[in-house]
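Submission checklist for the structure archive. All mandatory fields must be present; incomplete records are returned to the submitter.

[x] Identifier: Aquaporin
[x] Organism: Arthrobacter methylotrophus
[x] Residue count: 237
[x] Sequence attached
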Amino acid sequence: MSVLQRRALAEFVGTAFLVMAAVGSGVMASRLSPNDVGLQLLQSSIATGAALVALILALQPVSASFNPIVTLVERFLGMVDTRTAMGLIVAQFAGGLAGAILANLMFGLDAVTLSSHERAGTGLWLGEIIATAGLLLIIFGTLRSGRTERVAFAVGGYITAAYWFTSSTSFANPAVTVARTITDTVAGIAPASAPAFILAQLLGGAAGFFLIRALYPAVPALTAPAAADAADRKVLS
């Protein structure tokens, strides 16, 4: 198996488990606490944040972005080449869809059911911009400060918190957003609502990229020859 194939497999598996954590914990929380929305959010946020920490720690030696926005920023920073970035992004979207299907099946639901949960409004879109920009700041800021081993905990902690302080409950990930369109559960998002969420995430990604470049001007982007070495240090989000 080639390096790119191994990395794509890691992204597929990691994104699948991330979506299973988000969707599955949402279903479990809604069944255990059907009359307490706040408790449902607490249960789901803890489960998703904890899963992120575990997934990044386990898959970071191979590849652990699990997010097309993160991979695009890595491309613009010179950490991966275009071919690698495209391969990883395809794997992330495929993994997300697989994770949503598996989560549905685990809880006795149809494998694919389009979500009826509409999520729209300037407040939610602003929440996605902020959530995505903040996620990139956490990931690349921690990396560029030389604390690679702490990224998993930083990302898990941030996502757990962002469930609460962002109006959108912090999707911050196009692959996860698309995956959530095929589950008609509390974690779902209606297909008609997804494009605006993804646009907001792209805007947040651009903001996060420029923020990282402004905050860390003395740390050069990795060049193509260094990309292979960077593969073993890649992380989420």
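[x] Structure attached
Curator remark: The chain has nine helices and no strands. Confidence is low (pLDDT under 50) at residues 220-237.
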